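hey all, quick one before standup. I had two proteins in the batch that finished overnight and I want to keep them in one place so we stop losing track of which output belongs to which input. First protein below, input sequence then structure tokens straight from the run.
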Amino acid sequence: MSKRISKMLFSKERVELNLVKDIIKLNSTYYVNTDQANSKIKGLLSEARAVESLIDEAIKSANKLESIISNVEKQANELGVNPFSIDGYEDANAAIKESSEYKQVLATIKKFISSI
């Protein structure tokens, strides 16, 4: 075999070998990264579900507070008392207002969970 043909065959084998090495390296990188990502996604889903449960309970409490606050205001008016002088009244109003923001957060979390 001539030197030129031998050199061409060797070069071709070397190129093919480099391509195989690239495939192996890229496959390894892909699977290492996706395994790590899957592990983190499972953790995120677990945390998201826990937060979803906490926010859901908080919103339920705020909804109950709304009806109680309404009754407190009615009774305070009948008695001629300023409702802001009643313990917990101001905090309850703040919780009710804040709960609307948490309703948006809850919707976002639900979208996140359902998208995965």
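OK second protein, same deal, sequence then tokens:
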Amino acid sequence: MYDSIAALVRQEGWRAEGDAARVHYEGGDERFAIEYYAGSDTVLYWTVPTDPDVRDGTDTNADAGTAEPVPRASVPDPLRERIRRDLVAADVDPAAERREI
């Protein structure tokens, strides 16, 4: 496991998934999954369905449960700032949050 991943999972809500770390954020009517990839030193944002039936797996409509990548410009600034703080706390360059793929 990358040191950066191990350090991120010590931050609130983060968990390791191979060479990546993921955290979920829910605010208002929006839900995001944020992934940091150690190999490429990048952060990706995904929207996550907010329908409770989709989240708990009781909705079998495959289209309703699909997460979609979102551009950083559509992610609330407070969330992006929180992710940069978590990266800094994990000794990861916060510029990774701004890096385009």
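Flagging for whoever picks this up: The radius of gyration is 14 Å. The chain has one domain: 3-97.
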